[in-house]
C-alpha cells in the first residue's frame, strides 16, 4: 500500500506514513547523490572530492559568485568552501576575478577548462538519465523535475534564513 489515493492526494490517516516514506526515499537519494558526486569529481579531476564537484557545478549554473555566496547556497562552513575553492583554483578549474561591484571582493567562475570538463560529465549524466527514464512519459519526467525544483527552492529559502 502506497498511502496515496487514486487522485494523488494523501489520505488523512496515511499522511504521517507519506512523510515517513518521503524521508526514507529522500535519504536514499541523498546518499546515492553523494556517492555519485564523489565518482564524478574523480572523473572531473583525480584530485577532487564530491564537495568540489558540487561547488563547480553551482558556479557554472549560477554565474560569478563570491565565496560567501557559495557558503550560503551549499550550506557548508566557510573553511570548507575556502579550501575547496583554493584547490579548484590551483587545479585550473576555477578563476578568481575582482568583483565588478566591490573591487575589494573576488568573484569565482569556472575556468574554460573547468567548464569544458564539467559540461562533458553533465552530458554523460543527462544521457544516463534519459536512458534510465526513457520509458517514463515525458510529462512524468517534467513533473519530477518540477517537484524537485520546488523542494530545492524550499531548501534554499531555509538556508538563506539560517533556520
Structure characterization notes:
- The protein is mainly alpha-helical.
- It has a single domain (13-132), classed as Arc Repressor Mutant, subunit A.
- Helix content is 67%, strand content 6%.
- The protein has a two-stranded antiparallel sheet with strand order 1-2.
- Strand 1 and strand 2 (106-110) form a beta hairpin.
- Helix 1 (15-44) crosses helix 2.
- It is globular, with a radius of gyration of 19 Å.
- The two termini are 34 Å apart.
- The mean pLDDT is 87.
- This is DNA-binding MarR family transcriptional regulator.
- It holds the Pfam family MarR_2.
- GO terms for molecular function: DNA binding; DNA-binding transcription factor activity.
- InterPro entries: ArsR-like_HTH (IPR011991), HTH_MarR-typ (IPR000835), MarR/SlyA-like (IPR039422), Tscrpt_reg_MarR-type_CS (IPR023187), WH-like_DNA-bd_sf (IPR036388), WH_DNA-bd_sf (IPR036390).
- It comes from Blastococcus colisei.
Descriptive terms for the model:
Arc Repressor Mutant, subunit A; transcription regulation; two-stranded antiparallel sheet; 2 strands; mainly alpha; single chain; about 160 residues
What is the secondary structure topology, with strand pairs?
Blueprint: H1 15-44, H2 50-62, H3 67-74, H4 78-90, E1 94-98, E2 106-110, H5 112-132, H6 138-161
Antiparallel strand pairs: 1-2
Helix pairs in contact: 1-2, 2-4, 3-4
Amino acid at each position: 500500500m502506497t498511502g496515496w489515493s487514486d487522485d494523488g492526494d494523501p489520505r488523512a490517516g496515511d499522511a504521517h506514513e507519506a512523510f515517513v516514506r518521503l524521508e526514507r526515499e529522500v535519504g536514499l537519494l541523498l546518499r546515492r547523490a553523494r556517492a555519485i558526486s564523489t565518482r564524478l569529481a574523480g572523473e572531473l579531476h583525480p584530485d577532487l572530492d564530491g564537495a568540489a564537484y558540487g561547488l563547480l557545478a553551482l558556479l557554472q549554473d549560477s554565474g560569478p559568485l563570491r565565496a560567501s555566496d557559495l557558503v550560503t547556497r551549499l550550506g557548508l562552513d566557510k573553511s570548507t568552501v575556502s579550501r575547496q575553492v583554493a584547490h579548484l583554483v590551483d587545479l585550473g578549474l576555477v578563476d578568481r576575478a575582482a568583483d565588478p561591484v566591490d573591487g575589494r571582493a573576488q568573484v569565482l567562475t569556472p575556468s574554460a577548462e573547468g567548464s569544458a570538463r564539467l559540461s562533458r560529465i553533465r552530458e554523460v549524466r543527462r544521457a544516463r538519465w534519459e536512458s534510465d527514464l526513457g520509458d517514463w512519459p515525458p510529462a512524468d519526467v517534467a513533473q519530477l523535475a518540477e517537484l524537485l525544483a520546488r523542494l530545492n527552492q524550499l531548501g534554499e529559502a531555509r538556508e538563506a534564513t539560517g533556520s
